[in-house]
Design a protein that fits this description.
193 residues; alpha+beta; 9-stranded antiparallel beta sheet
Length: 193
């Protein structure tokens, strides 16, 4: 009986020690890759990453802060040749003197059919709510791989309340497509750094 208690005590003592770090000596990037591969190998989903990335730059003319929040789509936009299938990014920005903007941009070349001189209709669905109609306008510089929402404050309010935001766009020669963005946890406006 005493032997059994001693064995249990030894096992319990061994369980209180932290397991060795199997990634000791790895850089942060190497560690993320190794952990990601481990999840794929064992069929476990990787831990959720923060959906939103935040950045701030200084306006070179005023030295005032430009603030950005962006989230990458969880699916890809399908495009015919000569374009490739790409992800998209939903971004919010606040620029001194210009105010709030919200826009979608393809992470590569492509053509979203929304012109800079004519408003287009953009259906948006926040979470499980009904689709809503938003206005969009193409970029002033003629870029065809992005558009701006004409009511960014409304878009931000909806995205803050939803885990997923779906945006339907019309792609040249490939029709209407729904882009899904993870929008949970949006912190906007961002506190000053």
């Amino acid at each position: 009986m005493n032997r059994a208690l001693a064995l249990i005590a030894l096992v319990a003592a061994g369980c209180t020690e932290a397991p060795p770090d199997k990634y000791a000596g790895y850089s942060d990037t190497q560690r993320r890759i190794a952990e990601s591969v481990e999840h794929v190998e064992y069929g476990n989903p990787p831990p959720p990453a923060a959906a939103w990335s935040y950045s701030e730059t200084a306006d070179p003319m005023t030295d005032r802060a430009r603030r950005y929040a962006c989230t990458l789509s969880t699916n890809r936009v399908r495009q015919s040749s000569p374009y490739a299938d790409v992800q998209a990014e939903l971004c919010i920005r606040d620029m001194p003197g210009e105010g709030l903007d919200a826009y979608v941009t393809l992470k590569g070349d492509g053509q979203i059919l929304c012109r800079s001189y004519e408003q287009c209709a953009i259906p948006v669905r926040f979470g499980d709510g009904p689709a809503q109609s938003f206005g969009g306008i193409g970029a002033g510089d003629g870029s065809t791989n992005m558009f701006f929402f004409t009511n960014p404050a409304r878009l931000v309010a909806g995205a803050k309340a939803a885990d997923v935001t779906r945006v339907q766009v019309t792609i040249y020669r490939d029709g209407d497509q729904v882009i899904e963005f993870p929008t949970a946890g949006l912190e906007w406006p961002r506190p000053a750094a």
